[in-house]
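Structural prep section.
Before we set up the soaks we want a predicted structure of the protein with iron/sulfur cluster in place, mainly to decide which crystallisation condition to try first. Input record follows.
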Amino acid sequence: MSGPKKLYIKTYGCQMNVYDSERMAEAMGGAGYVETDTPDDADMILLNTCHIREKAAEKVYSELGRFRSLKDEKPDLKIGVAGCVAQAEGAEIMRRQPMVDLVVGPQSYHRLPELEAKARDGAKALDTDFPVEDKFDTLRHRPRARRGPTAFLTVQEGCDKFCAFCVVPYTRGAEVSRPADRVLEEARDLVERGVREITLLGQNVNAYHGAGTDGGEWSLARLIWALNEIDGLERIRFTTSHPNDMTDDLIAAHGECDKLMPYLHLPVQSGSDRILKRMNRAHTAESYLRLIERIRAARPDILMSGDFIVGFPEETEADFQATLDLIEAVNYGYAFSFKYSTRPGTPAAERDQLPEEVKSERLQRLQALITRQQRAAQDAMVGREVGVLFEKPGRFAGQMVGKSDYLHAVHVSDANLSIGEMARVEIVESGANSLAGRIKAA
Ligand code: 5AD
Ligand code: SF4
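Run finished without errors. Recording the tokens verbatim:
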């Protein structure tokens, strides 16, 4: 039997992994592979893994176990582990799980075709280097396939902040920014292929400091202003940011740059100065609140989003209360919250840990508050007019679903709408997880 070989990729974790999976699929396209959305007919299975919280490796082992019968039936099937678990525990995975043919870390996935060839020859292939060549450069020859209206674009990778709980500085390495001309070239290419909204990605995206097209170094704000000039690109977003890298020019851009959307993900993790210090966050609750005031002065309607960790070592009830107070003070439109999870190799893993019940109980209380705020922010959209970019058909005939400027899901019944279209929409109802709207007559 001939025809292209098939690649099945399963992606875990953050948006950067989604982007990386796309790039890996493209790299393997050059090696004669097409993507398939089921593992059953695949010639190669790749798990693109996440290591941010606990049980990451266990999840990978149990997922691999599910592919064992496929591998028994089809000995030619190659199985690979990519992403941050591969980076952290790749050699161990290969030792413990002989069915794994290939391990590739996030900084080496441009070498995937070579690794696949090696695996086809019957050898085990492992690459968790931080190579000197730029993986993005090697991946520049992309196929010209049509794309959906939204895309991720990685502009910065890695982190030098070393928060005491976080594995990212170890799995993704030191902060690196891509040169602006490469980012602009990739953005123009995406727009030509149908993309209307680009989300710039980086573990510390607002620390971006890439080589500019004018010989100088560009900040993220400067890069956003350059992207703003691209005809056909309608919306720009970015994630994830650190409070200490919210520079004046970036704050100002939120008020002045018309394509930059009024939504900002700005994790604070805790509202207690004592815990923030123990987390090595290098900011206080007060400095974070002042920062949000400045951002809201630039863009009053901005929707704030954040990340929180509960049950960090030594967190007392009073520390936790300070987090709830901070959440009350900010009033978030969205928030993501997690129980602290020990990550081997990070400083906080060595400290005394809180009981699981305490973490669970705090998480519940925090999530109840966040849910109320999210609900209120969504309900407050009723009666307002918002921009919506339509992404896909809705559940009912004639219905289209898209995202508002504030990232709320909005559905509209209008048979004339098409995917990739932007429209002004009046919000008429707030449902469980989405808003209903009607097109505003021009
Ligand atoms: N335990 C719990 N949550 C964590 N995060 C990062 N590391 C940990 C950890 N060890 C959360 C932070 C971060 C988000 C991406 O994941 O809130 O902002
Ligand atoms: Fe991790 Fe973000 Fe802290 Fe970097 S800034 S160490 S990615 S939580």
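Observations: The domain at 5-127 is CATH 3.40.50.12160 (Rossmann fold).
Flagged for discussion at group meeting.
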